[in-house]
Amino acid sequence: MIKVGIVGGTGYTGVELLRLLAQHPQVKLMAITSRKETGMPVAEMYPSLRGRVDLAFTDPASAPLAECDLVFFATPHGVAMAQAPELLAAGVKIIDLAADFRLKDTAEFERWYKMPHSCPHILAEAVYGLPEVNRDAIRKARVIGLPGCYPTSVQLGWLPVLDPKAVAAAGGDLVERTTLIADCKSGVSGAGRKAEVHTLLAEASDNFKAYGVTGHRHAPEIAQGLGAIAGKPVSLQFTPHLVPMIRGIHATLYARLTPAGARVDFQKLYEERFAGEPFVDVMPAGSTPETRSVRASNMVRIAVHRPAGSDLLIVLVVEDNLVKGASGQGVQVMNLMFGLPEDMGLTQLPVLP
């Protein structure tokens, strides 16, 4: 059994971790921390967990985190890097759902997250937790920086066209790497459980708006990941939007084809690249995936389109931002780190309607 602790168990990603880990056959939950809610039974805050999670929230200072095999951080940025040295010294592995171990450039981290990075030596060894790209490295890692929700959808959507093997087979780049566009929409749970005006019912309901148009902190993470996939620089325009639903991400990706790319069968390319991937479903040609088709599951669904008479490739990607975009991907990564079947505890079907 894997002894697991969760730091920051009161937010949406925290409760999603609890939902998934409570059903995992190889996990023993050791501790769930919250300074503010110390002593409160978890099931009192989240009645959906009654009968499945009998722990109470504990203060991080007294929680038996050093006795765990793995600790998840479902916390604000900056918390994981403050506690990582002590936990690693105790032999505990770490999966951070925040941004502390995502961006390899500490100056870039400081620019977007407005704090200095306190342990760049640990950042240097951290592995970016996107299994479809870094599966082998994840298996050997002590520290995982889990991708953000938007970056997961965008990177998986463009992975096949930037893969060096596909580029070599076509005799050159398939798409123009400097003009990529990611037009992405997310439900309000992506903003977290904290009280903010823009997520109030009267503000978010019956409304649809863009934000972060001139710059969003997921943009450098996406560019870093796509550049690592391609082996050369990639630039993009990333525009997120808030839509009046609770959970889900829909990414519409646009890329201009090169002469080499114009000759490629992209449906076949995507089907072959993701063949055998347990959580990526390449849909039949002409499909338009819906966010409800992945709700509460770890599945990503992708559809590829080439509009007639256009030199554009359009890729549609849907995921649940709290599952494959956060906690579910964390459990998938945990399974790899501990040599378990990758889909263990993650076979839940999407919820409809």
From TrEMBL:
It catalyses: N-acetyl-L-glutamate 5-semialdehyde + phosphate + NADP(+) = N-acetyl-L-glutamyl 5-phosphate + NADPH + H(+). The keyword Disulfide bond does not apply. It is found in: Cytoplasm. InterPro entries: AGPR, AGPR_dimerisation_dom, AGPR_type-1, NAD(P)-bd_dom_sf, Semialdehyde_DH_NAD-bd. Residues 3-141 form the Semialdehyde dehydrogenase NAD-binding domain. One of its GO terms (molecular function) is NADP+ binding. It is an enzyme of class 1 (oxidoreductase). The keyword Zinc-finger does not apply. GO terms for cellular component: cytoplasm. SMART domains: Semialdhyde_dh (SM00859). Belongs to the NAGSA dehydrogenase family. Type 1 subfamily. This is N-acetyl-gamma-glutamyl-phosphate reductase.
